[in-house]
Write a structure and sequence with these properties.
This protein has 369 residues and is of the alpha+beta class. It has 2 domains: 226 residues, Rossmann fold; 114 residues, OB fold (Dihydrolipoamide Acetyltransferase, E2P). 25% of the residues lie in helices and 32% in strands. The strands form 4 sheets. Strands 6-7-8-3-9-10 form a 6-stranded mixed β-sheet, with helices on both faces. Helix 2 packs across helix 3, helix 2 runs parallel beside helix 4 and helix 3 crosses helix 4. The chain is elongated and about 75 Å long. The mean pLDDT is 91.
């Protein structure tokens, strides 16, 4: 197995499209690293550069102590799973899985041994004689995984492999891939735009935006301690609420409302470049009641969405629409109702609008270098 390190990696497509900008990233040996971000942020390009399918404009790619920056894909000892599975339709499962080994002229007995081993791991031994058109989406995904396993690579690369599956099968395959990575103890780099996949699968998450790394951390770190406003708004569903406010002594003012700060929050928010701040609170941390009480703010219910596992309540506050999430049956509300909300101050996030940095959680982009 091997670690993967990107050092000051840049990728520029003609004429002047700067897709990756000075990327520094260290993926540990046997780590499950997920690259996540909005469409066009550069995550697939980053994966293709690790694979050797794209060459860097500038920078270095290291596999362990070896510089692989100029090496072609076939010399990097890696395997890649694509969104489309990329199976050969005229070959049965056995031939699809063994194709790379047969191309490398490996011993037939060794090829059969590796195919059977991978088929047993993935529970597809009874599918070896079938063609891809005779398989379900989940079965095709397992065959694509098997084709990688037989090569015994040092690094697995996954490019949005579950996008074509339905919700139930996606959930099942997430668990299968996690178990597979732990069993094989292989370094795995996984690209997705789905934050649920990122949060549920990763050992660590790299969040990209506009070709730059915004934060690297465990799922709990990026959720509880987002480095900046972008990470705070991207991770979490429903998304974090943001209110523009002004610091006045030891309070925050937004419209006619005032929020008292603790000593710790007052000290941290004082580091901002101006008195203007952005207060952030997560929907699931918001409390709601039907009666006024100390520290509560009067709001108007806008929309109530019952989603099964939770109920999302949109409300109008300080002239804008925000959202909160509660357990089903916790609070009964209808459009136009008056309610009272409060924010647990210990869960608050405060951002500097000039830098977008989180003043409450001042964390480095990457803790493990």
């Amino acid at each position: 197995m091997v670690s993967v390190k990107l050092e000051k990696v840049n990728k520029i497509f003609a004429p002047n499209v700067h897709v990756l900008k000075d990327l520094d990233l260290n993926i540990q040996d046997k780590e499950f690293m997920v690259l996540v971000g909005p469409s066009g942020c550069g995550k697939s390009t980053c994966l293709n550069i690790i694979a050797g399918l794209e060459l860097v404009t500038d920078g270095k790619i290291m596999f362990g102590d070896a510089d692989v920056t100029e090496l072609p894909p076939k010399e990097r000892n890696l395997a890649m799973v694509f969104q489309s599975y990329a199976l050969y339709p005229h070959m049965d499962v056995r031939k699809n899985m063994s194709f790379a080994l047969r191309l490398a002229k490996k011993d037939p007995e060794y090829i059969e041994e590796m195919v059977q081993k991978a088929a047993n791991i993935l529970d597809i031994s009874d599918l070896l004689e079938r063609k891809p058109k005779e398989l379900s989406g989940g079965q095709r995904q397992r065959v694509a995984l098997g084709r990688c396993i037989v090569r015994d690579p040092s690094v697995f690369l996954f490019d949005e492999p579950l996008s074509n599956l339905d919700a139930k099968l996606r959930s099942q395959m997430r668990g299968e891939i996690i178990k597979l990575q732990k069993r094989l103890k292989t370094t795995l780099v996984y690209v997705t735009h789905d934050q649920v996949e990122a949060m549920s699968m990763a050992d660590r998450i790299t969040i990209l935006n506009d070709g730059c790394i915004q934060q690297v951390g465990t799922p709990s770190e990026v959720y509880d301690s987002p480095r900046n406003k972008f990470v705070a708004g991207f991770i979490g569903s429903p998304t974090m609420n943001f209110i523009e406010c002004v610091k006045d002594g030891k309070t925050l003012k937004f419209g006619d409302n005032i929020l008292k700060l603790t000593e710790a929050l007052n000290d941290k928010s004082s580091k901002a470049s101006s008195e203007n701040l952005v207060f952030g609170f997560r929907p699931e941390h918001t409390k709601i009641t039907s009666k006024p009480h100390e520290g509560a703010y009067k709001v108007t219910i806008n929309v109530v969405e019952y989603l099964g596992a939770q109920t999302v309540i949109s409300f109008e506050f300080s002239g804008k629409i925000f959202a909160m999430a509660v357990s089903p049956g916790f609070y009964s509300a209808n459009m136009g109702d008056t309610a009272y909300i409060s924010f647990p101050i210990e869960k608050a996030h405060i951002f500097d609008p000039e830098t977008n940095l989180n003043l409450v959680h001042d964390v480095a982009i990457q803790k493990i270098l």
